[in-house]
UniProtKB/TrEMBL annotation:
Protein name according to UniProt: Nudix hydrolase domain-containing protein
InterPro entries for the chain: NUDIX_hydrolase-like_dom_sf, NUDIX_hydrolase_dom
Keyword Hydrolase listed: yes
GO terms assigned for molecular function: hydrolase activity
Cofactor(s) named in the record: Mg(2+)
UniProt KW keywords: Hydrolase
Cross-referenced PROSITE patterns: NUDIX
Length: 158
């Protein structure tokens, strides 16, 4: 008999598409295996924190930029990394925003920041092992691919 339900930890995160002159701001982070990962600025929400507040906090730490006037763009929702130690139920919000300030990351995991032309964004995406790394799951990048093509959707079931 199969289990009708099971409890998964919930992971909530928010990321922001910051755009300037046809370029998207990406942060460079060093992964545990030493490789460089390019991702959107943003990250995990604290317990009780809204996705919008998490976006503002994380972007400031990762880039030094202050974001205002967040506009909700997309929600990714569903089971992620099933069968790995990081299995979770994901609620990931994507926003656009107005930004100000100077690039000055204070997050020690951020090793660089780049304004990347829209047409080059997908070339920086790395998929593959280790499988428990959510950022390397192709499903996480589908909304960004759609965004740079000018075709974002409001909802992405994972």
């Amino acid at each position: 008999m199969s289990h009708l339900s099971r409890t998964l930890p919930v992971k909530r995160a928010a990321h922001v598409y910051l755009v300037q002159d046809g370029k998207l701001l990406l942060v460079e982070e060093r992964m545990d295996d030493g490789s460089i990962f390019y991702g959107l600025p943003g990250g995990k929400a604290h317990p009780g924190e809204t996705l919008g507040d998490a976006a503002v906090r994380q972007v400031l730490v990762e880039t030094g930029l202050t974001v205002t006037d967040l506009v909700f763009l997309s929600l990714l929702e569903g089971e992620l990394l099933t069968g790995t130690r990081n299995e979770c139920y994901a609620n990931f919000g994507r926003f656009t925003a107005t930004f100000s300030g100077e690039l000055n990351p204070t997050d020690p995991e951020v090793v660089g920041i780049r304004w990347v032309p829209f047409e080059e964004v997908e070339m920086l995406v790395r998929y593959g092992p280790p499988p428990e790394i959510e950022e390397r799951n192709p499903l996480i990048w589908v909304p960004t691919r759609d965004f740079v093509k000018g075709q974002p959707r409001a909802y992405y079931p994972i």
